[in-house]
Specification:
Blueprint: H1 3-6, H2 18-29, H3 42-76, H4 80-88
Helix pairs in contact: 2-3, 3-4
Length: 89
């Protein structure tokens, strides 16, 4: 189950597009069991959450790295307002 979150360790290639990889991994898991009260079975929920989190992190990683570089530049320049504006972006 942790392969969804940490990747496949190079065993099989993952689609370069995170959205398509998300769809492929959800299709591979096939059916998520829904209980009578409308909630998802715990193991299926954890797998679903891991798939979503992994692909979301992959999709937003370039933007996160860009904002981190900007934050460091603002800290080096002692520009507190710019740093806060960057943080809130």
């Amino acid at each position: 189950m942790l392969q969804y979150f940490f990747g496949n360790n190079g065993k099989s290639s993952e689609n370069k597009d995170p959205v398509l990889a998300l769809q492929e991994q959800l299709d591979l898991h096939e059916n998520f069991e829904i209980l009578s009260d409308g909630t998802m079975k715990f193991d299926d929920f954890i797998a679903f959450r891991c798939i979503i989190m992994r692909q979301m992190l992959r999709k937003h990683q370039p933007e996160k790295e860009r904002l981190q570089v900007l934050a460091l530049e603002h800290l080096k320049n002692n520009a507190e307002r710019d740093y806060v504006a960057n943080y809130l972006e």
